[in-house]
Design brief:
Elements lengths: L7 H7 L4 H7 L1 E5 L1 H10 L4 E6 L1 H6 L1 H10 L2 E4 L2 H7 L8 E6 L5 H5 L5 E5 L5 H13 L4 E5 L8 H7 L8 E5 L1 H10 L3 E11 H6 L7 E5 L8 H4 L4 E4 L11 H17 L1
Parallel strand pairs: 2-3, 5-6, 5-9, 6-7, 8-9, 8-10
Antiparallel strand pairs: 1-4, 2-4
Helix pairs in contact: 3-5, 8-9, 8-13
């Protein structure tokens, strides 16, 4: 049992909260029973190690059984150890170390995707995680996160996905130009979200979302640059019927992805 929160092993795990360490090791942290359960259920080969407190092991027996079935090394740990390794202030007593699970861009576009989210210069890890979760819920085929966006393996981003990171292909570290070129070559219609664009309801009514579609979402504060939005096949706006100045990025993304899903399901 790990009892010393200052031991070398604990410190090595805790360092995975840092981006450079994650990149060097190609490993990241997954906190909490729900996210770990999804990792073990959907991508068991990615789970390298499981740390769990005595109380959490008794409470989440299904997680322990999944880990045993996958042949994952289960390490009992004191509460203080989990606190030292986790990014959250109040850990839930379950922590997994996982290998990277991102997919190559060419593999994703070669699979005939019909509903794709592209995140470009998105800086809030919570937004990235929540959009991955929304894309998963809407049945989207992939999420592409460009190199100028926040790291998808940031602990806050991983937590915000609540396990969806293991359900849907996620591409990382690609340029905006390479992404747009690959989407065009694969035959997807690219739609950039922009306040001055065509109303999404009009686009949907005209059948514009029934075809394979990739949504391009920009930075939380200033959106896409004009020259980037101009590269898309269409500029699309989500209308505001009330007095709010704007929608949050994650809400706008969820609406666009679901509108596309509705059109394609019909």
């Amino acid at each position: 049992m790990l009892e010393n929160p200052r031991s070398p092993r604990v410190r090595q795990v805790a360092k995975l909260a840092k981006k450079q360490r994650r990149r060097d090791a190609r490993m990241f942290l997954v906190e909490g029973p729900q996210a770990v359960r999804e990792a073990l259920s959907s991508a068991p080969d990615a789970v390298l190690e499981l740390f769990v407190t005595h109380a959490s092991a008794d409470k989440h027996l299904d997680v322990i059984e999944l880990a045993k079935k996958a042949g994952v090394d289960i390490v009992p740990a004191a509460d203080e150890v989990l606190m030292a390794m986790c990014d959250t202030v109040t850990p839930q007593g379950v922590l997994a170390v996982c290998g990277f699970v991102d997919s190559p861009l060419d593999q994703v576009v070669s699979g005939d995707p019909r509903n794709v989210a592209v995140l470009h210069e998105v800086k809030d890890p919570g937004n990235v995680g929540n959009i991955i979760r929304s894309a998963d819920a809407a049945g989207a085929d992939a999420v592409i996160v460009t190199e100028s966006s926040v790291d998808v393996y940031n602990p806050k981003a991983v937590r915000a996905t609540t396990g969806s990171l293991f359900h849907i292909p996620v591409v990382t570290g690609v340029s905006f130009e390479a992404t747009m070129g690959a989407l065009r070559q694969a035959g997807l219609r690219t739609c950039a979200t922009q306040a001055s664009g065509t109303d999404i309801n009009e686009l949907a009514a005209n059948g514009g979302l029934a075809q394979p579609t990739a949504w391009i979402f920009g930075n939380e504060a200033h959106g896409l640059a004009d020259e980037e939005a101009a590269q898309a096949d269409a500029r699309v706006a989500v209308p505001l019927y009330g007095r709010a100045e704007s929608l949050s990025l994650q809400t706008a993304a969820a609406l666009c992805l679901y509108q596309t899903a509705f059109a394609q399901q019909r």
